[in-house]
């Protein structure tokens, strides 16, 4: 468990996680422009401010808790999940809720039952569905200044926002197949959202996150059970329903937030199950729920809800999978 | 077969009585301090809910409807639920005195669990439901209740050990947790059309 290790090692883990996110962020910028960087900047500033205020209110020493970097990781993960054309207040509300309710009301890092970043994301998705589904299309020509202008003032002087935004790949496929279209027909009618083997841009972002995740595994920052069980269950679910949904396992593994979740979100050691068997069940459960909500639910992607649902189940899973103490009867 | 599965998925997850319809919150908050008591309460409520929704369906179809006195539904169902709870109490007292002691006051309190009456009333409002559908509706509702009650109890045991700020200790943080759980269950919205 995290809270049992020295503060310095938490900082080390969080720094590794941030390093491992860099390839994904670079891929994101290449395909979707500077929006994500602005998201990250606003989110990190909000997170640090809210963290300091909460520590003051709770009369805790500020420096060691700020330096552990957990607030920054929460902020960056949430910023990566948000649309790349988000107004500042959206990020502010999401990050504040994540840090205050998701983390500090439970006593801070190590005690929070829910993944704070996903709590913030779910709150925003439920409360502001419109703002949460405005995505810039890949290969847009928006400059850093224009993105910043939108984030601060919600306007793109003289540029038609509708011309630059579109539904994400997952969203397009869900809406169109809901109207009875076959996957091939959707691909033909909306070529702009499809890339080489999955969603345009998304496939490379997912590959980059996979790369960062493998590095985390190699550095033993995260354990193998969660990524393997999560990716495995997404693969098996999508293979099982391939004949009905016409969407291939590759499309699901490299679409949406799959790889980000597999290595960076589901692997949060505080909110995941703590036993090795429990971790397998926990991550497989996220995969199953995420797939079901992604394919048939009312929201474009199911990762956040899958994570929260299994966060809920993690204490129960731990209870039933904990190793027996020596001499303990059944 | 498919519609039966849909009723179960709908009542257990999509329209969960506690987290989506906000019924049965008193036992949800009251009996979730310990995992063992929560499990006992979950089993007792499952039994009562299933049986009472069957009984109330039968009473409605073969007694109230033919006589044209549907306006007596609420009071009839309360009577049926009280009877079923009394029966369960006697049954548990005989079979498991330990569980009887552990559940204590909460066992008779199933009578006033609004989810039990809510399920019975919602059940007869769905005119397309026959006997099997009504039984499944009650069973699914109670499985949904049991599921979230047990998960919640395990979470509360962990939260009790946490360094929660003083104003939020106890019931406040439990209610906040219930709210966040409800948020997670909103992910199921739209899974079943209609």
Automatic annotation (TrEMBL), chain B:
GO terms for biological process: electron transport chain. The keyword Transport applies. The keyword Membrane applies. It is a multi-pass membrane protein. It is found in: Endomembrane system. Keywords: Electron transport, Membrane, Translocase, Transmembrane, Transmembrane helix, Transport. Its main location: membrane. One of its GO terms (cellular component) is plasma membrane. The chain crosses the membrane at residues 6-26, 38-59, 71-92, 99-122, 134-153, 173-192. It holds the Pfam family Rnf-Nqr. NCBIfam families: PRK05151.1, rnfA. This is Electron transport complex protein RnfA. It comes from hydrothermal vent metagenome.
């Amino acid at each position: 468990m995290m809270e049992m290790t020295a503060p310095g090692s938490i900082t080390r883990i969080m720094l590794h996680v941030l390093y491992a996110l860099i390839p994904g962020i670079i891929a994101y910028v290449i395909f979707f422009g500077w929006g994500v960087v602005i998201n990250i900047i606003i989110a990190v500033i909000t997170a640090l401010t809210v963290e300091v205020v909460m520590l003051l209110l709770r009369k805790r020493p500020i420096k060691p808790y700020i330096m552990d970097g957990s607030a920054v990781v929460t902020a960056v993960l949430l910023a990566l999940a948000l649309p790349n054309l988000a107004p500042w207040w959206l990020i502010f509300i999401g990050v504040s809720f994540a840090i205050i309710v998701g983390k500090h009301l439970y006593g801070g890092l190590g005690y929070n039952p829910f993944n704070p970043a996903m709590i913030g994301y779910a709150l925003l998705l439920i409360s502001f569905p419109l703002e949460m589904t405005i995505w810039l299309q890949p290969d847009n020509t928006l400059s850093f200044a224009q993105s910043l202008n939108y984030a601060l003032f919600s306007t793109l002087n003289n540029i038609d926002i509708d011309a630059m935004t579109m539904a994400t790949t997952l969203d397009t496929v869900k809406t169109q197949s809901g109207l009875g279209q076959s996957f091939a027909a959707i691909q033909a009618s909306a070529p702009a959202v499809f890339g080489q083997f999955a969603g345009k841009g998304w496939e490379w972002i997912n590959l980059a996150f996979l790369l960062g995740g493998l590095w985390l595994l190699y550095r033993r920052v995260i354990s193998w059970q969660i990524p393997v069980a999560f990716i495995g269950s997404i693969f098996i679910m999508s293979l099982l329903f391939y004949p009905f949904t016409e969407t291939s396992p590759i499309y699901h593994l490299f679409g949406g937030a799959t790889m980000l979740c597999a290595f960076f979100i589901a692997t949060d050691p505080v909110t995941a199950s703590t036993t090795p068997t429990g971790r397998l069940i926990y991550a497989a459960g996220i995969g199953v729920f995420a797939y079901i909500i992604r394919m048939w639910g009312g929201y474009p992607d199911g990762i956040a809800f899958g994570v929260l649902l299994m966060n809920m189940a993690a204490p129960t899973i731990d209870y039933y999978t904990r190793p027996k103490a020596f001499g303990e009867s059944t | 077969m498919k519609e039966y599965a849909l009723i179960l998925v709908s009542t257990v997850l999509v329209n969960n009585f506690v987290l989506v319809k906000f019924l049965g919150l008193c036992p949800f908050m009251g009996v979730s301090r310990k995992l063992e008591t929560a499990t006992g309460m979950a089993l007792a409520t499952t039994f009562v809910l299933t049986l009472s929704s069957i009984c109330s369906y039968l009473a409605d179809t073969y007694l109230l409807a033919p006589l044209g006195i549907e306006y007596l539904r609420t009071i009839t169902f309360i009577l049926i639920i009280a009877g079923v709870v009394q029966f369960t109490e006697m049954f548990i007292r005989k079979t498991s005195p330990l569980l009887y002691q552990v559940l204590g006051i909460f066992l008779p309190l199933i009578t006033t669990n609004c989810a039990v009456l809510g399920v019975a009333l919602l059940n007869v409002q769905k005119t397309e439901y026959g006997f099997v559908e009504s039984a499944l509706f009650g069973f699914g509702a109670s499985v949904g209740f049991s599921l979230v009650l047990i998960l919640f109890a395990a979470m509360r045991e962990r939260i009790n050990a946490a360094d929660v700020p003083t104003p939020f200790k106890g019931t406040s943080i439990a209610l906040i947790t219930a709210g966040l759980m409800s948020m997670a269950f909103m992910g199921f919205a739209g899974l079943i059309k209609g």
